[in-house]
Amino acid sequence: MSVNRIYLDNAATTPVDPEVINAMAPYFTEKFGNASSLHSYGREAARAISDARKTISKKVNAKNHRLVFTSGGTESNNLALKGVAFANKEKGKHIITSKIEHDCVLNACKWLQKQGFKITYLPVDREGFVDLNALQEAIRPDTIIVSIIHANNEIGTIQPITEIGKLCSDHGVYFHTDACQSFTKVPIDLEKQLIDLLSINSHKIYGPKGVGGLFVRQGVKIDPLLHGGGHEFGLRSGTENVAGIMGFAKAADIIREKHVEHMAKLRDMLIEGTLEIGDCWLNGPRHERLCNNAHFSFKYIEGESLIIHLDLRGIATSTGSACSSKSLEPSHVLTAIGLRPEESHGSIRFSLGKDNAKDEIEYTLHVLRESVETLRKISPFKR
Known about the structure:
By secondary structure, the protein is α/β, with parallel strands linked by helices. It has helices at about 20-25, 25-30, 40-60, 75-85, 105-115, 130-140, 160-170, 240-255, 255-275, 305-310, 330-335, 340-345, 360-375, and strands spanning about 5, 65-70, 95-100, 120, 145, 175-180, 195-200, 210-215, 280-285, 295-300, 315, 345-350.
């Protein structure tokens, strides 16, 4: 096939959908009002934000939650953890999370440790799953919140959040989950799954960068990070990004089950074809994984070299989280599932999008086989 460029790094970010751009456009020039203003321009912006909040909330059955708009997943996760920690420090200072969380959660926890909070980092098994028994044993009388990522951004593991939510509820502990990768790809029901706080963002679902959200169950004690005019229920001061919020709502609205099924079919095709290469394996589970995630380790080669080879042939992939891709340290996620440093450095992540096509995966598999063969011939690791 004739190929220009193939984008297989949708876990890092996605292109903005044309429908999203159209939905945003009027709010830059025609409906540009500040939602806090009393005049017609302000009321128009306020109504738009209210409608967008309802659209996104329906996606997760948020009947008893408020959606606080933020600048993205990082802010949402920081607000959830730090906001709950300081609002509930009289009850306790113990927080539970896992070793495979996104960097923003782990770094927020490290910062909270410096403020006197105690953090328990739960281990995971070879496929990246948290042990529910270990979680139950870790909960203490002074535990205030459990934060477990819904679907891992590197290896695609989908955690059993229904069971985790029930466990936390039974012990009177808040449950927060980072759903930035799973939102619109995996069904989420805030009521049935007993989720107190849920982080989401826009640019992973074909919306604009710079906008996200945190669902907060009514009654949850949480302090704001930003203080100002009291926007977003007093939890996130600052003039709302109306255009971005409208784009976020449109992005959430246009994703359908057919898109999820399409990505899952291409993912399976990619997994099966890649494993035929030999001396490689899939990281994460075969089934309970994101519809668009395929993460592999290859023996005798470095992931960075493979990425460069693929990029020279027009295929964009990554070694893992885009937030830490320039680090020379092995991935903390791959280390947590038991990979040795050399195995971690020989890893690569493909993350599909709704607009990828079968012939693109066929071409990718063809180039991948050639690239792996070429790199192994010159590898200093292969004896």
